[in-house]
Write a structure and sequence with these properties.
Elements lengths: L4 E6 L9 E3 L60 E4 L18 E12 L2 E23 L5 H7 L3 H8 L7 E6 L4 E8 L2 H7 L16 H9 L4 E3 L4 H17 L2
Parallel strand pairs: 1-4, 2-4
Antiparallel strand pairs: 1-8, 3-6, 4-5, 5-6, 5-7
Length: about 250
Amino acid sequence: MAGKIYVVNVGSNASHNFCSPIFVDRTFEFIPIPEDRQLPGTHGLEYQQLNSFYDPQENLSKYLPDAMATVTAHSDPEFDTFTYGDNCEINPRAMGMREVVRGDFLLFISRLQHWREGRPTKKFGFYFIGYLHVEQILKSVSGQPSDIEMGRFQVNAHIRRGMSDKSLWDKFWVFGGSSWSNRFYKAVPVTKDLCNKVFVTAGGTPWEWKDGRTELQTIGSYTRTCRCAIDPISSQGKIRSAALWDWIDKYSG
């Protein structure tokens, strides 16, 4: 696992009226954010069309408000063909991904809501849910990609947007994962102890856990903007990278 590791915060947050569920055994379902507009059925994917990772015959409607059923979901990242897209040239929180190269990792972190006995609780946590081992990158997409590229990326939410409206070929980037990519069977907990062991700030200092802020708030704040979190080229980076992958191996299965 020699590539750089970029931590990407995905899925719903406190501003949405739903959250991806995690269960007692740490299995989970990933529910993406809504699109900023309704897309036509030929290109849009409604929430009622999202299926369980563990049972494809079951959809995810039980975890969503009834009013969300026919809303278009921004299904990104998607773990069927392993793609992820973002507006890396105009979204300040995504600009760090312009440095991603083949062989790097996009490690997805998401805020999950604990469910017990078939009902949501008021407990939330951050978890790693999977990663892309980057194999291919479409940069600054301003028009429909080639047939070969479409064959690889047509499922991605940003490609779907562009196909529905030419104005949405808005110079987004799309990353395609290799066969090493993985959607975890179980969510990997992101704890204070882990963060202190493997992550540092952009300036190279340890994360600061301020009084008056919860661990959830602190982790959310430090991961809100995507950047290279670990570069294993340095000796310390190699140690931190190994510790992170060991943690993931321990908890992801």
